[in-house]
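hey so u asked for the seq, here:
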Amino acid sequence: HDVTAIYQELQAFILRIVGLVLLISVFATAVTMVVLSRVAIVPILRLRDDLRRAADLVSREDTGDKTEAMLYACQGDRPDELGEVMMAFRQMYDRIHREILDRRRAEQESETLLLNILPPAIAERLKRGEHPIAERFDRATVLFADLVDFTGLAANIAPAELVQQLNQIFSAFDTLADSYQLEKIKTIGDAYMVVGGLP
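ran it, structure tokens below
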């Protein structure tokens, strides 16, 4: 028996099967890649871009409501695991954004308070970490005035009258301090403190 013809047909059949398997593999791989890219790869790449964009957005001073529209993760909900990742990303971004705004507000309040308490030049030196902040002035005067027997006076007159008398006395001191270009430091109860010869 001559099996050469059958052997050739068998080889051609095997080649067709291998070709068909390769064709199906390429087609299945291409379809899988297209589906994966639309379902997972592109959204993951967009989330990566969101991370970069979010870092840029939270570092800016003018972060507002419109910034969420720029983030892919804020544009919709997905019912799969990637949707959970996107929701976690949104929550993380919202928390960081809120904390940064709170920190900026606290810094602004701290700055305002610091400038209310200290002169701007001293506040700036304090922010730079300079400690202790002290300067020497060879010709300076400090006046600390205290009313004699203030406690006895306070015990014998009405509170409204006492406040009125203190107001009259301290207003006179303020007028004198202005006329002699003195700097009032503070008043505590019946004490009045002013300095001269200092910037």
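The radius of gyration is 40 Å. The first helix runs from residue 4 to 59.
lmk if thats what u needed
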